[in-house]
Amino acid sequence: MNTIRLHNLLFFGCIFLLIHGITRSATSAPLKDSLLGVSPEDEIYYKGFSSSSAIKCKDGSKKFNKSQLNDDFCDCPDGSDEPGTSACPSGKFYCKNIGHAPVILYSSRVNDGICDCCDGSDEYDGKTKCVNTCWEAGRVAREKLKKKIATYQEGVTIRRQEIEQAKLGIANEEGELLKLKDQEKILKELVEKLKERKEQIEKAEEKERLQKEKEEKERKEAEEPKENEIKAEVSESMQNDNIGTVDQPPQDSAEDHHESANEPELSDHSVEDRLPNDGVEVNEGPVQKTEQLGEESTFDDKTGLDTGNQDDNIAEDTESLSREELGRRVASRWTGEKTEQHEEFDASIDKDHQNPDETPNETNDEENNGYVSEYDDHKYDDDDSEDQVDDFGGEDHYDSSSSQTPESDDESDLSDITGTSGSWLEKIQKTVKSIFQAVNLFQTPVNITEAAHVRKEYDESSAKLSKIQSRISSLRQKLKQDFGPEKEFYSFYGQCFESKQNKYVYKVCPFKEASQVEGYSTTRLGSWEKFEDSYRIMQFLNGDKCWNGPDRSIKVKLRCGLKNELTDVDEPSRCEYLALLSTPALCLDSRLKELQDKLESLNKDQPGGHDEL
Amino acid sequence: MKITSPSLDSTLTVSVTILIHLRPFTPQKSPKITEILDQLTISPDSMIFLHNEFRNCNQTPFCKRARSRKPGACPLVAIDVSISNGDLVAKLIPKEKSEENTENGENPIKPLVLTISAYQDGIMRLKIDEDQNLSPRKKRFEVPDVIVPDFVNKKLWLQRLKEEENEEGIFSVVYLSDGYEGVIRRDPFEVFVRESGKNGKKVLSLNSNGLFDFEQLRDKKEENEEWEERFRSHTDTRPYGPQSISFDVSFYDADFVYGIPEHATSLALKPTRGPGVEDSEPYRLFNLDVFEYIHDSPFGLYGSIPFMVSHGKSKGSSGFFWLNAAEMQIDVMGPGWNNESVLMLPSDQKRVDTLWMSEAGVVDAFFFIGPGPKDVVRQYTSVTGKSALPQLFATAYHQCRWNYRDEEDVYNVDSKFDEHDIPYDVLWLDIEHTDGKKYFTWDRMLFPNPEEMQNKLAAKGRRMVTIVDPHIKRDESYYIHKEASEKGYYVKDATGKDFDGWCWPGSSSYLDMVNPEIRSWWAEKFSCKNYVGSTPSLYIWNDMNEPSVFNGPEKINFIRLLIMNLILIEILEVMLISARDLSVVTMPRDALHYGDVEHRELHNAYGYYFHMATADGLVKRGDGKDRPFVLSRAFFPGSQRYGAVWTGDNSAEWDHLRVSVPMILTLGLTGISFSGADVGGFFGNPDTELLVRWYQLGAYYPFFRAHAHHDTKRREPWLFGIDLVQERNTELMKEAIHVRYMLLPYFYTLFREANASGIPVARPLWMEFPADEKTFSNDEAFMVGNSLLVQGIFTQRAKHVSVYLPGEQPWYDMKTGTAYEGGATHKLTVLEDSIPAFQRAGTIIPRKDRFRRSSTQMENDPYTLVIALNSSMAAEGELYVDDGKSFEFQQGAFIHRRFTFSNGKLTSSKMGTATGGNNKFASECTVERIILLGLSPAPKNALVKPANQKVDVEWGPLLLRGGKGKSFLTIRKPNVRIADDWTIKLS
């Protein structure tokens, strides 16, 4: 306990007034009042002298008699015999400060030549004259207090609203999460099927191509035995090889392919196959990547455990079904027909999902999503972006302005998934159905239109899936945060608060990170760690390393204010920053009550006699 | 040997990136910079202080030559020995006249003039110089303003010369003091002090090993290698050629030698040559700004005092001081260094040989005969002056950090001390408070109202200190620079232009403080009118006054440059050009001072003159009524007259905590009483335990200041009070600071003793127990005054510590009052809450047990006397009190009491000197409590006379705080005034 000011000690004020008569005359001989410096709480302790000649020191170490009370010699190590002098180093002196707030001082302040109590009661040895400034100081303090109370009163209301909204928001998001998980499951199956179909097509195409190549070669060999042309041929085929494993019909040269496939999906596809990780590197921060993978894999494990036993049996069943049958069943899943087959299906998809060979592919798909998202965004933006964002406008604003943050993709994606989810799912599902019905797989040569169609559907669906997954992951990420006991910090999520100090802009993004921006260079001050000190401090740790110093870190102290406002960023110790954030989230009812009580007691404490001054 | 920070190398690389990052708009410069930085980073040890980085003896021609000379090589003999003007005079010439011309060609050895003088109190002075009548090329430099004017008056007028002859040759003998004689042997020439009588034992001698050499100034005849000197491709032009002096000095009956600061080494100096000493360097005395110095190294640090003290069980102490400000190297020879020991007869005197080598100057040496350690210190300080009596506040706790950034920071730190009830007296501002490192200015963004700030602190009885360094920013708009350059007050380079070096502000010049006129001009700058923003409660800190020059010839102080926030590519550009040219962290030796003195001749005294000028400035500011307080990093003999010094930029390591003790003891031994080490360690972050231990030890340093580097974490005591466990650490630091405040009356009395007699505040054990051999090499424990023994704890999580308590009387634990037998080593359990400290039986320590915000508020507080009785139930002690700030004490305005306890009676009497305590200083202070340790049987009552008043005797604690220990007899509220004579009789 190091604070000397105790605010709530005025309950005994009135009683004490009766006993006490010399407050204002700072220079009067004090020790006449043997209870000088005694706080109202302690009066009862010193009343011990009325019944016995000696009482025990508070710590029980010793006894002292009445003549030893405030006799300027320390008898009790805890200072209980010297409440009004400086004799005991651990003593405390109480000044009443009528007209202002009472204060408890270290005994080292008594008669040290410095006026510490506004009533001057700490300087009574005649060497220093102190003017009683309590009324003046008290008035200023009360004004301040009133203002503070006003802020709190308004702030408390805002805070309540925010809590309401937070609760709503959380409920919404939890609901959404559940829904998305269902959708994810379904979509996964679909994607698997499409993939299988696509691969079959590709296999057929490859076969055709080889066949054609062979024919071509034979033809050429017969026609042109010249060396030059052979060389040219070799180089061309090498070129083809370089372009990769993309299954092109033999008649399609690389150029042709590009021309014919203006659609982004196709070119993406080729990129993806060649460089499966590119999309990741470009679009997503490494941290986000690992998190997603982590989530994904735990999810997989769970599923694996749940369904492990059934897998084998069902796998056989599924295999025995013809492709058409499969397709129909997939379709029926959403048209509501033959629900009894539902279980069987789920299981088969789980099984596929577990196939280790497919895992990289799947990850890849998901990440590839980042690559095409721009395109998707445009596509879906118009439909359904509004309803979600109303509740947290700041979030939306922030996301759209900062392109490099991983959450931005997820968040903007959510619009096309959540809004009219039913309709798009149906759409996909119908398309798939039609594919399965229309395409004759075993027909040679491959129907090019149909093949493209399958590819397109596959790409779109897997993009969708990955979007859903990333949304799930980001929702989970969000919902596992500590939003405070009443979720009052919910609205901080996804928000950043900025403050410009000289040449630096400080940016604090709760639950995420804090940084210092100077022109184009950004220094990380820390990543979100936690709330501290009963939600009065936000702590960010492990920022960029300081030369010859520690890793940067920042503490953001929170205080009640009417809006979220970052002020006073400071670096009290090298690379350890401190900032102040005003926020309604800190406008606590209980604190308001405290302040009101304090004001009330201050007002109550104005003695009628004070008019004299 | 250990490398302070192996990681520096990599961090540097990082910073380089930052550096280049800083100025993306000058990309064309980057490759060059990278190149130089690469070169600098290639060798990791170039980034930190290591011997091989600074120049060693072998790279220093005069040192190499002197070290390789064989015993007996000196050809000189003394002739024409006679008495003249009260001195013994003689001429030194080579024995074989014919050798002159063959060996030295056109530079014949001219006769040297030797003078021996005697002074009161057992001091012999020996001077050897070129003969001015033979018109040497120039007058060699003799360091002015070091010897106190009063010393001249102590000269004895020698009248008689006694001639003696024996098988060793002819001797001329003069009287020195009762029981001692000064002697010169003619052939080979040798000078020594002996006990009186023909067979008197030698005390100290010079040239007994025939290693004396004196390189005379020569004219430059032709280009030759020897003339100029190169170090790391820096060329020292040496316009006068080699001019070094070296000689051997022997200390007889000595077990150890001590002194010659400043080195981070043991108190008893280890041999640097002789059997078993490998690869060792001599102790170097060359003031340098050493970055992250390592402990246990003979390398010279920030200050130099060429004064050595010997001590041995049989004889006691003697001392030798060479007043010379050029670079000096000193070897301590181990036994058998010259294979002589084999030949030594048992009857031969045991001795320690030393070799003294200096680059320039003259021989002006002082022999101090002792015989006690305190006698030697008294004798030495009668030559160079006693410690100034500091103001009371300066002996209390100082809070420093590089940097308290702005006024808000200052107010916050100030109020936190109050909030935690931790006293402090002085808050310090490092270089960042200035406007662009222009001293005497303020960064008005950070410190818009410096006067108001100082006044607010002063209202709580607190002072502030600002830093003022000797490098002056070369900025035409800076008034100091403008005046200094107009008046030609700067040190000149070898070509006669203002020397321009790099320091904190960038391009800087250095005031030529050797010139009294310039010192006087400088002193004026401290008046409150001239130093805008200063108030009378502001005092000064002189840093970097070695002088530190970042791009000087010894080594580029690259790290310093980096710290300057990488000052930027422009500077590195300059460095790029100069890196291979210059070699130093200080000024080139051929820079020129007032009177055409080369920097090489006075280098070690530069900081001293700066310190002097600054202290004089504060005296002038206060109209001669306010004692100055100036802390200096560089020092030289005599610095004790001008203020405090500290041990420079140490590190937050246990080894540095440990080495602080011998460093401070050595300073005290060589006259500088008021010294301390940065509590907590300047570089690096101490863990809490180390910090607590440092506070506990630092509370007993004569100068008690916490300081921390810019890049370290904040470490003010309350920052360790986050939770309950941590809270304890804050409590412990607070407790340590309280111990200091409690003992302030004792400390202040000791500072007065140092002021009067030169005896330091912190003393090696052997200074108090000169006959106890076990104390001779003990530098983990020390005495504060004659009454307190303090043992540091220098290891982490120490459980036990062995403490040797010397003497025959018991010792009382300062915290618990437990008695321990003297003359024994005690294995004690180490406590977290304090380091072991003991009061010696037979002493009385005055304390003030009430804790205030600062020492200022303690002025009227009553005293506690702690009487530790010896086996004869007796004790004595002193208390010195004055106004704590003015020079009035010099006119007798003080109270100086002696307390004696014997036969059950405590007596307070005036200390018996004529100047002692007239009535000019009055104090109403009383004694509120007297604690008696070791008294039996227990008395019931006490009678105070002359008041004839009975007072209670009861059982009470030894300490009011933290002590849950035993109870001790306590005289309750005798309330006698300290100004009065009185007795208290127990019955």
Automatic annotation (TrEMBL), chain A:
Residues 494-589 form the MRH domain. Pfam families: PRKCSH-like (PF12999), PRKCSH_1 (PF13015). It comes from the Eukaryota. Residues 359-368, 382-393 have a biased composition (Acidic residues). Residues 203-418 are annotated as: Disordered. Residues 203-234, 254-276, 335-356 have a biased composition (Basic and acidic residues). Residues 1-25 form the signal peptide. PROSITE patterns: MRH. Transmembrane segments: none annotated. Keywords: Disulfide bond, Endoplasmic reticulum, Signal. Residues 236-251 have a biased composition (Polar residues). PANTHER family: GLUCOSIDASE 2 SUBUNIT BETA, N-LINKED OLIGOSACCHARIDE PROCESSING. This is Glucosidase 2 subunit beta. It comes from Rehmannia glutinosa (Chinese foxglove).
From TrEMBL, chain B:
It comes from Rehmannia glutinosa (Chinese foxglove). Pfam families: Gal_mutarotas_2, Glyco_hydro_31_2nd, Glyco_hydro_31_3rd. Keywords: Endoplasmic reticulum, Glycoprotein, Glycosidase, Hydrolase, Signal. The keyword rRNA-binding does not apply. It comes from the Eukaryota. This is Glucosidase II subunit alpha. Pathway: Glycan metabolism; N-glycan metabolism. InterPro entries: Gal_mutarotase_sf_dom (IPR011013), GH (IPR017853), Glyco_hydro_31_AS (IPR030458), Glyco_hydro_31_C (IPR048395), Glyco_hydro_31_CS (IPR030459), Glyco_hydro_31_N_dom (IPR025887), Glyco_hydro_31_TIM (IPR000322), Glyco_hydro_b (IPR013780). Residues 758-845 form the Glycosyl hydrolase family 31 C-terminal domain. Belongs to the glycosyl hydrolase 31 family. PANTHER family: ALPHA-GLUCOSIDASE, BCDNA.GH04962. It is found in: Endoplasmic reticulum. Residues 114-331 form the Glycoside hydrolase family 31 N-terminal domain. Residues 388-750 form the Glycoside hydrolase family 31 TIM barrel domain. The keyword Signal applies. SUPFAM superfamilies: (Trans)glycosidases, Galactose mutarotase-like, Glycosyl hydrolase domain.
